[in-house]
Specification:
The complex is a heterodimer of chains A (211) and B (563).
Chain A: E1 2-11, E2 14-24, E3 29-33, H1 40-48, E4 56-63, E5 66-67, E6 78-81, H2 93-100, H3 107-120, H4 136-149, E7 154-158, H5 166-183, E8 187-191, H6 194-200, E9 203-206
Parallel strand pairs in A: 3-8, 3-9, 6-7, 7-8
Antiparallel strand pairs in A: 1-2, 1-4, 4-5
Chain B: H1 3-32, E1 35-36, E2 41-42, H2 47-53, H3 56-87, H4 92-105, H5 108-119, H6 124-128, H7 151-173, H8 178-187, H9 192-207, H10 209-221, H11 224-229, H12 237-245, H13 253-290, H14 298-327, E3 329-331, E4 341-342, H15 345-385, H16 391-401, H17 404-418, H18 424-449, H19 453-461, H20 465-476, H21 478-494, H22 497-503, H23 510-517, H24 523-562
Helix pairs in contact in B: 1-13, 1-15, 1-16, 1-17, 2-13, 3-7, 3-10, 3-13, 3-14, 4-7, 5-7, 5-14, 5-24, 7-10, 7-14, 8-9, 10-13, 12-13, 13-17, 14-24, 15-18, 15-21, 15-24, 16-18, 17-22, 18-21, 18-22, 19-20, 21-24, 23-24
Classes of the chains: A alpha/beta (211), B mainly alpha (563).
């Protein structure tokens, strides 16, 4: 369960997010909609601990029963998926995934798990390729898989489909939906695409501009 | 790395850099006013200043320094900008860049020695035109090198600085939009070179101001190039200073300190002269450009500059080729164009000595560039978190712009006091003082432009920030890091004064030995030294460009082969 309690985000030009309070249950996806520049991505930045320096944020973020807004980004164990997949260009597909895989997983099993997961998302045998050799859709799937392999306690999605074409979008939507249910973690999706929102959202919130 | 630890380290490094700078300035300021603990005098007096101002050698040295320094800077700027203007929109621009970048890695002493062997009365140029044109069968009695006006010194400095300024201008141009600007201007009917003069060159001038100041400061205060190829009766002020400081009687130290202050001051004055005259030229250019003349006669200045640049580039290439020629010569009699026979004996005879000197140079350069890289990363990480923190930049530029000879003699007073003089560690320390600024400046733009998203994503995926920093951020930055290391290495290789002053003759490198022997007449031995001095940083440079580019490819090939 991911809980936001009166979260404010301010830019030098005014308030972006004004006292937002929401609770997202396990396996549920909350969709935040609204025009660009309204502070949707900033909200995800605040939740994940990577808010740009120019902005200030306040308010509590609870994950399960612990408060996480004072933790550093790496201690929060949140997965964030953005427009650009940010796959590490100097590592192979397999290495990118191994990089994310929990350290507790035994050495002997790591490769097998990664291999199996690659099969699951329809990229068998791609392990030794470099990410930039893959198509956009493949990269998107890979980025999702990489995020999930790190066992996030919640998933944040920042317009992750906006660079994909219509067919790929649909595929990705159902893949993401399936993953959220399987992992049974709370998710927040930020988008300005109504189809995204309808396909994934258990609840949809429209953010409006105050100024 | 925790932010607090980083911040703490930042201040330690800043302090560590400030300390030698302050010590260096105080160490010449106080003795110049008669306060010199080393000589046991603590009475304030102006007697050294009086001595200095009544010293004809000082005035002639100062005049020579200012003349050669300003003229060499002006010529380098003129030639470099003409080269850029004439080649920019052609395929030669790329070729030009890939030719000059390795030249930048070669220590200036090595190129200067090559220039000496090309330009001297018995040099390659005279040999090429003798005896068929000149009728000479023995070297003429000319003063072509070490001429009293310092003309060859100016040529040597221009050879060294033109490639650097081309490099700096190419980097600056990428911040402008030359193609769009040129297109617009040319659509208005301006011919291409005039278009450059009226639109791009004024902008470029502002962007390369700092590199030009660095060139000016270097030209005014350089010791090794002026020792090798500069005039010696009188010599430039920096060389005269070195002689005064090293005078066994110690009585010249006071006046030397006063002269060192003046040298530092003259850098500031020359920068002011440069800016002022640029201002005047700018106003004139502006007036011209507003006349709407589509074909300005400024074109001829650029074409002449291009010609000059071509001469300088050919000299550079000759100077670099003459080194291996002499190093492997068995016999090269005077008017012959080429050596009559080659041999490896010179290198073998140099044997043990050469290996020792190279090892010393290599180990200093290696340690120095690694240390500088570490320090630069800490400084830059702090600057990333606080972009307003400008202290490091100021200190770095003061280390570059203040004359080496001024600072180092002040620092030497401190080293003597601590009894650290003549140790390898103090040489390493002084080298680092001079490599760090260049490593820092090379790394700065790419480090700050790094897409932090990669590291943030890595930290979300795996809770090991330190390892992620290495495996993601530094791994992705390996190209600029390689370049920074190569530059650090070549700057350290080129250091003459720091080695001389901190090492006190007990620590010898390829550079100190090559400069000391340059005019010994033993061209074969000197060429072997200079060649080694050029080859080490070149190897390092190629490794630094090739290794990062192919690292991932090679790593994966190896991995696949092992699987």
């Amino acid at each position: 369960m991911l809980t936001l309690q009166s979260v404010f985000i301010e830019s030098p030009n005014g308030v972006l997010i004004d006292a937002l309070s929401e609770t997202v249950n396990q396996g549920e996806c909350l969709v935040l909609m609204g025009p660009s520049g309204i502070g949707k991505s900033s909200l995800l930045g605040y939740v994940s601990g990577t808010l740009p320096k120019a902005l200030t944020g306040r308010g509590e973020v609870w994950l399960q029963n612990s408060r996480i807004d004072h933790l550093s980004a790496e201690q929060r164990h949140l997965g964030l998926l953005q427009q650009s997949p940010l796959l590490f260009p100097h590592m192979t597909v397999e290495e990118n995934l191994l990089f994310a895989l929990d350290q507790k997983v035994a050495k002997t099993e790591r490769r097998q798990i990664v291999k199996a997961k690659l099969n699951d998302i329809g990229l068998p045998g791609y392990g030794h390729r470099l990410p930039q050799e893959l198509s956009g859709g493949q990269q998107a799937r890979l980025a999702l898989l990489r995020t999930l392999l790190s066992n996030p306690r919640a998933l944040l999605l920042d317009e992750p489909f906006s660079k994909l074409d219509q067919t790929l979008r649909q595929e990705m939507r159902s893949l993401v939906d399936q993953c959220i249910k399987e992992a049974n973690i709370p998710a927040i999706l930020v988008t300005h695409d109504v189809d995204d929102a309808n396909a994934l959202g258990n609840r949809i919130i429209e953010l409006k501009s105050d100024f | 790395m925790g932010h607090r630890a980083n911040q703490w380290l930042y201040w330690v490094i800043i302090g560590g850099l400030c300390l030698p700078l302050l010590l260096g300035l105080l160490g010449v300021l106080l003795p110049s006013f008669g306060i010199d603990p080393a000589l046991g005098s603590s009475q304030f007096s102006l007697v050294h200043w009086h001595e200095l101002l009544n010293q004809p050698e000082f005035w002639s040295g100062l005049k020579l320094s200012v003349f050669t320094g300003l003229l060499a800077t002006l010529l380098s700027y003129w030639f470099a900008s003409s080269l850029v203007v004439c080649t920019y929109q052609t395929r030669w621009f790329q070729r030009l860049q890939s030719t000059i970048t390795p030249i930048l890695a070669i220590p200036h002493a090595a190129i200067t020695i090559g220039a000496l062997f090309v330009l001297s009365p018995s040099g390659w140029l005279v040999r090429m035109i003798s005896p068929w044109l000149t009728q000479f069968d023995r070297p003429p009695n000319w003063l072509t090198v070490q001429d009293p006006e310092g003309i060859t010194l100016i040529i040597a400095l221009v050879i060294k600085e033109t490639p650097y300024l081309v490099f700096a201008m190419a980097a600056a141009l990428s911040q402008l939009q030359p193609n769009k600007t040129l297109l617009t201007t040319r659509l208005l009917g301006y011919d291409p070179i005039t278009a450059w003069h009226f639109t791009l060159l004024p902008q470029l001038f502002k962007l390369v101001r700092l590199p030009v100041f660095m060139v000016l400061a270097f030209n005014l205060t350089v010791v090794d190039v002026a020792t090798i190829i500069g005039p010696n009766t009188p010599s430039t002020l920096a060389v005269t200073l070195l002689r005064w400081f090293n005078d066994p009687s110690l009585s010249l130290r006071g006046q030397a300190s006063a002269a060192a202050m003046i040298l530092a001051f003259s850098v500031a004055v020359c920068i002011a002269i440069w800016l002022l005259s640029a201002r005047c030229c700018g106003l004139l250019r502006k007036r011209l450009s507003l006349l709407g003349q589509r074909r300005s006669s400024l074109r001829w200045a650029t074409l002449a500059g291009m010609l000059g640049a071509l001469v300088i580039l050919s000299l550079t290439i000759l100077a670099l080729f003459v080194l291996p020629l002499w190093a492997f010569t068995r016999r090269w009699r005077f008017p012959d164009n080429w050596p009559s026979s080659f041999t490896l004996d010179n290198v073998f005879r140099a044997g043990q000595n050469l290996i020792e000197l190279s090892t010393q140079s290599f180990s200093l350069g290696f340690c120095c560039s690694i240390i500088s890289l570490g320090l630069a990363l800490v400084l830059l990480e702090c600057e990333r978190l606080r972009p307003k923190q400008k202290l490091a930049v100021i200190i770095v530029f003061s280390a570059i712009l203040l004359p080496q000879i001024t600072l180092l003699f002040g620092i030497q007073v401190g080293l003597l006091y601590l009894d650290w003089n003549g140790t390898w560690w103090s040489v390493l320390g002084l080298h680092t003082l001079y490599t760090l600024p260049y490593v820092y400046l090379t790394l700065k733009a790419p480090y700050l432009a790094f897409d932090q998203g990669y590291l943030e994503q890595a930290n979300r995926l795996r809770t090991t920030p330190v390892r992620n920093f290495w495996q993601v951020k530094l791994a992705l930055l390996k190209a600029p890091i390689g370049a920074a290391l190569a530059i650090g290495f070549s700057v350290s290789m080129a250091q003459y004064l720091p080695t001389l002053i901190a090492g006190e003759g007990r620590i010898n490198t390829l550079t100190t030995e090559a400069v000391a022997r340059a005019s010994s007449g033993n061209r074969k031995w000197v060429s072997v030294l200079a060649l080694a001095q050029a080859i080490l940083p070149l190897l390092c440079f190629y490794m630094a460009t090739l290794l990062p580019r192919y690292w991932t490819l090679w790593r994966l090939t190896l991995k696949r082969a092992l699987c």
